[in-house]
Amino acid sequence: WHLVEPGRSFIPNWHIEAICLFLEALTRLDIQRLVINIPPGFMKSLSSCVFFPAWCWGLENPSLRFIFGSYSGALALRDSTKCRRVIQSPWFESVARFPIVLQADQNLKTKFENTQTGFRLATSVGGLGTGGRADFICCDDPLKASEAESELARSYSLDWWTNTMSTRGSDPRSARFLVIAQRLHYEDIPGWCLKQGYDYLILPAERVKGEPITSRPDLLPPGL
Fold this sequence. Notes:
224 residues, 8 strands
């Protein structure tokens, strides 16, 4: 936390623990397709796009490969830069189980790769094309809030997810898919994923009493 948010205090809360538990389940392949819905400002991007790949490399498997996409190339690069900052820090080297060395010839904001062939690639909606395959295909806010009412924008982002990103898994048996976003429309990407049977963790700003927040209550922290 001190590496990406210096000068700001970390405020723990159960929802952060819940997100981490579900991401760990994704790593174990206990879950293979996951939707997390959460409003902005609740550590959505830091937990999933910055800390998660660093945790996987340092404590689980440095050869894992990640593709992260967002509606904005600038946002995708922001989180990629923060993740690389964590990985290259002396603090990370002191706590990681595996030594992580980034390749000198592949150490960019858009893509950096370690000496164990693991990489993290950042792209935006409409990007990536036909190249690049990974173990984790992740999408953080694929639709801009101001364009949520545009049928064309929704269709464009959904086509990108279903015809480009969803085909980029290295191995169909072990590829993991993550969509973490605020809900903006019934026909947005999270809505489509839920209809396809993705596991989900829904963390609304205001919960409707009696409404389930997850398909996997066994993964929630005790007492919830």
